[in-house]
């Protein structure tokens, strides 16, 4: 299938950022019997579905599977927007590093944004945060996330 990548059953490790820049890639699937990985909503996850390993860079909308509670470094790249599920509590270091993301939807469950999570995200224009202004101020945001300072932040809840 054009735009698809099938991870062979023999692959048990994927280097962070392995699919960055693969703008042709629209969906992942995993060969039957792979002991380490699964594919959900076209994303590559760990077998239990709890960690996002890679999101296909050639997609239009970044809808992360609801089972995801952890995002791997450089899991995103090459797409315009991302919607993180309420199960995510931490955006790790370099999660969006260098991506062309223009819009992000961050749930109120997020309490920490790791170092360089949004580094070189020069296209980031809008962050839709599901909490209040007060909640946003409580998030521990590590250095290297200047893109969050220049993006317009909208809040879903009022205080």
Task: Chart the SSEs and their pairings.
Elements: E1 4-7, E2 27-30, E3 37-40, E4 43-46, E5 51-54, E6 62-63, E7 70-71, E8 81-83, E9 90-91, E10 103-106, E11 112-113, E12 126-129, H1 133-138, E13 140-141, H2 146-150, E14 152-155
Parallel strand pairs: 1-2, 5-7, 6-8, 8-10, 9-11, 10-12, 11-13, 12-14
Antiparallel strand pairs: 3-4, 4-5
Distance between the termini: 48 Å
Please state the average pLDDT score.
Answer: 89
Query: Helical amount among residues, as a percent range?
Result: under 10%
Shape descriptor reads globular
Order of helices and strands: EEEEEEEEEEEEHEHE
Main β-sheet, in a few words? 5 strands, parallel
Instruction: Indicate the radius of gyration in whole angstroms.
Output: 15 Å
Task: Tell me the strand order in the biggest sheet.
Answer: 6-8-10-12-14
Number of helices: 2
Low-pLDDT residue intervals, each spanning 5 or more residues? none
- Which structural class is indicated by helix and strand composition? mainly beta
β-strand percent reads 25-35%
Annotation, overall tally of beta strands = 14
